[in-house]
Each structure stands twice: as structure tokens, then as C-alpha cells.
């Protein structure tokens, strides 16, 4: 037995396993349509899920030692910070890792292909327009599914609330 603060596995194995799984999940999370992720960034959501899962294993006295769990948590937090830093400083990483807005309506015309790709139904779009006080899609200059999963709407010039 390694003791309460000893490692049960070699450090290189813990680091490589944690890093490999973390980046595999980053890719998987990136493929989830943005309307499903809510207001958390994919990296934030991923870090919370993984830390919670590992913490539960540590609390339940799983097969790994507390030192293993602490190292894994530190690696995940560290990689999350590195990814956020790269997204902030390197436009290429920002384009790869962050969702951009998707146009759902342009000049009163629904963009059906974009809606299909993002899995936004006509009913969901209409509900978002009603929340903005718009009852006729022809009054919409643009409606976009933002990176946080919300639908933002810009009315046409001169359009009044509720106009039909």
C-alpha cells in the first residue's frame, strides 16, 4: 500500500491517460450542437463533469489513491486553462474550438439548411421570435443561433413590435 498520499499508478500513466481522455472528450463535446450546451462553454462543461466524476471515485474509495485523483484534477484544470489561453491568444484555436453564430433567418427568409444542421425546429424559431415580440418572420432582418445556444434576433428597420 502506498499510503494515503502515495500514487497507485506511475505518474506518466496518470498524465497520459488523463490528457488523452480529456482531449478526446474536447473533440466529442465540440461535435455536440451548440443549442444543447446551454450557457456553459464546452470546456467548462467538460471540466465540471470530469472533476465531478473523479471526485466521486475518490470519495467512494475507488481503485485509485487520493494523490491520483488530485493529480488528474490538476491536469484537467491545467489543460482547461491552457485551452482557454490558446483560444484567447491564437485565432486559429478560437476558430477550431469555439462555435460561431449560425444564421437562422436572413432578410425574413429562414435558412433551412442551417436550421437542419443545428437541429432548430421551425417551432423553436417561432417561439424565439415571439419572445422578442415578433409575430411575422418577414419582419426579421436576421436571427442567429449564438455560440451559447441562445437565438438572437434583429428586426428590420422600421418594424414595430407585434406587427403582422
From TrEMBL:
It is a multi-pass membrane protein. Residues 90-158 form the YetF C-terminal domain. GO terms for cellular component: plasma membrane. The chain crosses the membrane at residues 14-33, 45-63, 69-88. The keyword tRNA processing does not apply. Its main location: membrane. The keyword Ribosomal protein does not apply. Keywords: Cell membrane, Membrane, Transmembrane, Transmembrane helix. Gene3D superfamilies: bsu07140 like domains (3.30.240.20). It is found in: Cell membrane. InterPro entries: DUF421 (IPR007353), UPF0702_alpha/beta_dom_sf (IPR023090). Belongs to the UPF0702 family. This is YetF C-terminal domain-containing protein. It comes from Sorangium cellulosum (Polyangium cellulosum).
